[in-house]
């Protein structure tokens, strides 16, 4: 007798809050319908979210492609500009070298004209000390005067050319400085663009869906299932093929024993049967090969066995 059982007062009373089976069924159906509606709403929401994610991934991929194209185009333009600046820098440096050489030549020409001018000045000055009637403005005086004028005009022209050359040299040097600074900026920008491209190559193009499939193992399970199905299909095919080969070998064994008994009747009949048996065995090999190529089942193997037995009977009765 258990200690936990006892007589209770009015055990047949109806507790408060009790419901009839119809109410319980209605309440359960309502809960079921609510749950199914929530599931349908969740499915629709998940589909909408998935569509939004796919659209976002497509837009991101499109934007990534457009950005990569803009980067490549910018790098191409920057490379062309950098090459042109390098060529301009080389030409400017060559022009500066040539201008410096021209300035040296002009300065040497000026120095070369200084001594003749001094000599002409000295002669004219010395001729002013001639006494009385000897102080005559003769042809020598006019020649020295013309020579001094030509030398002075030549030196003035050389001086103007020298000043122009120095001004051009200063402009070329300023241009070279600007080109060098621009070339440095282009090189830095090109290097940064290339680094950006290398950084963008490491960006993963996998979507969140792909990552979730990999993390949850769904992708690996599908791959395992397909691999298992393929292996099972291959095993079934191998079993069918092995059974067919075994049947063919059994038939060939019967044929070989029959041909051995028949060869004892005579050499001529033995040779004839041997040739027929050889042709029959070749035909059997061809039949087995054809059965392997099409993957015939056990029924085809039995049909082949019956056919080979009929051929053996025809060989024995020949």
Give a description of the structure.
By secondary structure, the chain is mainly alpha-helical. The protein contains 6 helices and no strands. The chain has helices at 21-127, 139-201, 208-216, 218-263, 267-294, 298-317. Helix 1 (21-127) runs antiparallel to helix 2, helix 4 (218-263) runs antiparallel to helix 5 and helix 5 (267-294) packs antiparallel against helix 6. The radius of gyration is 56 Å and the shape is rod-shaped. Mean pLDDT is 74; it is low at 251-305 and 307-318.
Short description:
It contains 6 helices and no strands.
The general outline is: rod-shaped
Intertermini distance: 95 Å
- The helix content is over 70%
Number of strands: 0
Query: Which structural category do the helix and sheet elements fall into?
Result: mainly alpha
Task: Kindly estimate the percentage of residues that lie in beta strands according to DSSP.
Answer: under 5%
Biggest beta sheet attributes: none
Summarize model confidence as the mean pLDDT.
74
């Amino acid at each position: 007798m258990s200690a936990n059982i006892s007589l209770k007062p009015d055990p047949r009373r109806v507790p408060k809050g009790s419901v009839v089976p119809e109410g319980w069924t209605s309440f359960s159906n309502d809960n079921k319908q609510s749950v199914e509606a929530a599931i349908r709403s969740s499915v629709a929401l998940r589909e909408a979210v998935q569509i939004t994610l796919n659209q976002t991934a497509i837009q991101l991929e499109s934007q990534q492609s457009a950005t990569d194209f803009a980067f490549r185009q910018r790098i191409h333009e920057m490379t062309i500009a950098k090459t042109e600046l390098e060529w301009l820098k080389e030409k400017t440096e060559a022009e500066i070298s040539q201008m410096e050489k021209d300035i040296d030549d002009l300065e040497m020409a000026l120095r070369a004209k200084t001594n003749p001018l001094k000599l002409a000045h000295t002669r004219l000055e010395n001729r002013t000390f001639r006494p009385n009637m000897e102080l005559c403005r003769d042809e020598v005086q006019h020649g020295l005067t013309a020579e001094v004028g030509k030398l002075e005009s030549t030196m003035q022209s050389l001086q103007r050319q020298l000043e122009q050359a120095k001004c051009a040299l200063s402009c070329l040097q300023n241009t070279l400085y600007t080109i060098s600074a621009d070339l440095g900026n282009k090189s830095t920008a090109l290097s940064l663009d290339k680094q950006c491209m290398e950084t963008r190559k490491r960006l993963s193009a996998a979507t969140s869906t792909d990552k979730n499939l990999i993390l949850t193992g769904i992708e690996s399970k599908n791959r395992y299932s397909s691999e298992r199905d393929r292996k099972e299909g291959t095993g079934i095919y191998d079993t069918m093929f092995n059974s067919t080969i075994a049947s063919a070998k059994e038939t060939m064994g019967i044929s070989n024993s029959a041909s051995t008994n028949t060869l004892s009747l005579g050499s001529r009949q033995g040779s004839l049967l041997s040739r027929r048996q050889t042709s029959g065995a070749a035909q059997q090999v061809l039949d087995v090969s054809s059965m392997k190529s099409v993957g015939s089942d056990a029924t085809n193997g039995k049909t082949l066995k019956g056919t080979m037995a009929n051929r053996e009977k025809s060989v024995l009765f020949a």
